[in-house]
Amino acid sequence: MRLGVVSDVHGNRVALEAVLDDMPAVDRLVCAGDVVGYNPWPAECVAAVRNREIPTVMGNHDRAVASGTAFRFNSMAKAGVEYARDHLDDDALAWLAELPDERTLLDGRVKVVHGHPDDPDRYTYPADFAPGLLDGEELLVMGHTHVQHHAVFGEGMLVNPGSVGQPRDGDPDAAYAVVDLDEREVEERRVTYDIDRVVEAIEDAGLPGRLGQRLYEGR
What we know:
This protein is α/β, with parallel strands linked by helices. It has a domain at 2-100 and 165-217: Metallo-dependent phosphatases (Purple Acid Phosphatase, chain A, domain 2), CATH 3.60.21. Helices cover 32% and strands 20% of the residues. The protein has 7 helices and 9 strands; from the N terminus they run βαβααααβββββββαα. The chain has helices spanning 13-22, 42-51, 60-67, 75-87, 90-97, 195-205, 209-217; strands at 2-6, 28-31, 102-105, 110-113, 139-141, 149-153, 156-160, 174-180, 185-191.
C-alpha cells in the first residue's frame, strides 16, 4: 500500500498542481490539513481536494476560515483568512467546518492529524518525533510546522510531508511524501513550481506582499 501524503496547501494552486503532476503512482492520497489560508486560490484548492475525495483533517487555518475567527494570527495570516472567507461559497465553507481533527484510515493502520495527536494546534517539530507519539497505528501523519521530516521506529513511522504551498524549511520547492506501508519506507519529495506566478497573483489579490516574497526563501 503506497500513500501520497500532502499537507499545508494554503491556497497555493500552482504548487498543488505541480505536486499532483509529480506524484508517482500511489494507492491513495491523504492530507494533513490547512487546505486554505495565505495564498489566493482557496476555492480552487478546496475543489481539487474534494474532487479527488482526499481524506483530510482540519488545520488551524481551515478552522479560522470556517469559523470566521483568527484571534492569534499575525496580520499576514489574518489577511489570508479574510480573503478565503470572501472567496469561498457556503458549500466550501461547510466542507471546511465539517473536517475532523483526526482521521484513522485503512483499518487503523494510518492516523492523520494536523499538529499533534493530543492537540491539533501544537507544533511537532523534527526534534519532537518519538515513538511515544504513536498509539498503535503503523503510520502517523502530521503537518502544521511546514517542515519536511520523517522517522521510522520499531513501533511505526512518523511523517510530516512538509508544506505544499508555503514551505518553511529553507527549501522553496513544494513538499510532499510517498509512504510504502508494507515496506515501511518513506520518500520525501520536492518539486519546483512557478513562484513568480504566485507572487503576481498575491499582488493582484491585494494580499500582503511578504506572503509572496517568503515563498522564494522557503520561510
